[in-house]
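Figure 2 data, in text form.
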Amino acid sequence: MRVFVAGGTGFVGGHLRQALLAKGHTIRLLVRKKGTGSEAGIEEVEGDVTELSSFVNGVKGCEATINLVGIIREFPQRGITFEKLHVQATRNVIAAAQQCGITRHLQMSALGTKAGSRAKYFQTKFAAEEEVRNCGLDYTIFRPSIIFGPKDDFINKLAGYMRTFPAMPVIGDGEYQMQPISGDDVARCFVEALDRVETIKHTYELCGPDRMSYNELLDTIGRAIGMNKVCKVKNPLLLMRLVVPMLEQLSFFPITSDQITMLVQGNYCDGAWQNTFGFQPTPFETGIKSYLTPSSRAV
């Protein structure tokens, strides 16, 4: 089928594009500006997901829409906000599908999303989910945990810090739990859902097979790059919650209050999604060893 994909030019989008093409689907890919060349099976549609009129014609002739649009940090002074990129973008993709007679929609959300969350990121992700649940389309919502893969930001960034600095900062005690999942596994779920009517009007929490603390995650990354030990410096949670609000307005500061709230909340699930999709997800250590390079500081 021909699938319209918004937010498909980034890290997860790369995995999804490959998975869709491997299954024989063709892609209408929303882009800010068309490239000089196009991959076979992919047609670029120029537009802005926050401006419905700019891309709605590009949705015509498609049989499904997929919305991957999302940001982890907002910069209001530059017009980059959770409300705009999570809620308004979702509303626009849905409206485009409705206007073009499309009934199937897949939505990327995030593990931890729920009503009444203290984190603005999760609040707007939930609001976007509500837009999807109430739109009348045959939807499927996915809430993945931290996603890892060759071009991920989170795991590669942590590995980069380990290669550069003698110790890793840890917020609080580092015992909050997480359960990362590979980008290939997330993409596989999206693509398989297109052909599975039993996934319609369902929300799936996606996580990998390995539940670990943040401390254990750091140790696992350390082993993957050849380090015998990862030194950690604990930063009291109360102190971080006092200091970060004063610095988070600076774009170069690496963390926000919202991200601290999400981090210490934990990010794991029961793995029930496997009952529907029927495959074993990639183990975390095996997955990251396939793309992380050894550190010159390995000890």
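Caption note: The mean pLDDT is 94.
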